[in-house]
Design brief:
This protein is of the alpha+beta class and 138 residues long. It is built from three helices and eight strands. It is globular and about 45 Å long.
Amino acid sequence: MISKINHIGIAVTSLDAHIPFYRDVLGLEMTGEEVVPEQKVKVAMFRVGEVQIELLEPTSEDSPIAGYLAKKGEGIHHIAYATDDVAAEIDGLKRNDIRMIDDQPRNGAHGTRIAFLHPASSGRVLTEICESGSGSHE
Ligand code: ZN
């Protein structure tokens, strides 16, 4: 079941260039910074209430985020909804003829299990579903 928005992903060319805005200007709590090899990104997370802002910097030229930046530039990349069971959510979406980028859950930042819907099935808004891992800050 989808319960809330977990995070909003924002594509940036450089974490270092943008962290000061979120941490120092907006005054958000920075909850972590880590490399996610599976997605070829380095992420920085900031808490704002129950929602996190996830800055995404590509770690290689074949990163999906590098492709996004080349095509569209920096900006909002995806919205991630929290679910208690990402595998069951995928099954339910597929039963509703939703096209998935990820047919199987994969590893996200901070021990989460995630899957992306294909934007063609979600009004061109890249949509992620996200199940918090035991090691998360949830
Ligand atoms: Zn995300």
